[in-house]
Write a structure and sequence with these properties.
129 residues, mainly alpha
Length: 129
């Protein structure tokens, strides 16, 4: 099994679990939403569903590229909420230090790279990986 496939499966599991958490504990995500966001609970459910569908989609060859672009768009779209939490200095329902909340922000870039590499990057000989 090549590395890209392994990381694609891990990516799928990450997004399916993260998406399911939007439905299990929506209150944790409500505290992250900036006050200017309309219908925050609806957006929490929509983003959770998008994470689940995107996670599943990266494992389906004909849906992989669409899912990859969708997950990248989602990661960009939720960045303001993560930035909002960092500026607040706390995440309701969690005991994260303010430093951890700021360190989460660069992870968005790492996650975008992870999605791109596993779903959109041109295929190449990966036997050397």
């Amino acid at each position: 099994m090549n590395r890209r496939l392994v990381f694609r499966i891990l990516l799928a599991a990450f997004f399916v679990v993260a998406g399911a958490n939007h439905f299990r504990t929506p209150a944790a995500y409500l505290g992250m939403m900036p006050s200017w966001v309309p219908s925050p609970l609806t957006l929490i459910y929509v983003s959770g569903a998008a994470e689940i569908l995107g996670g599943i989609g990266v494992c389906v060859p004909f849906a992989r590229k669409f899912s990859g672009w969708g997950l990248i768009a989602l990661l960009v779209a939720v960045f303001p909420a993560n930035l909002h939490v960092a500026f607040q200095g706390h995440m309701p329902g969690f005991d994260f230090s303010p430093l951890v909340l700021w360190l989460r922000l660069p992870f968005q870039v790492v996650a975008i790279g992870w999605v791109w590499w596993t779903t959109l990057a041109p295929a190449r000989n990966e036997t050397l990986d």
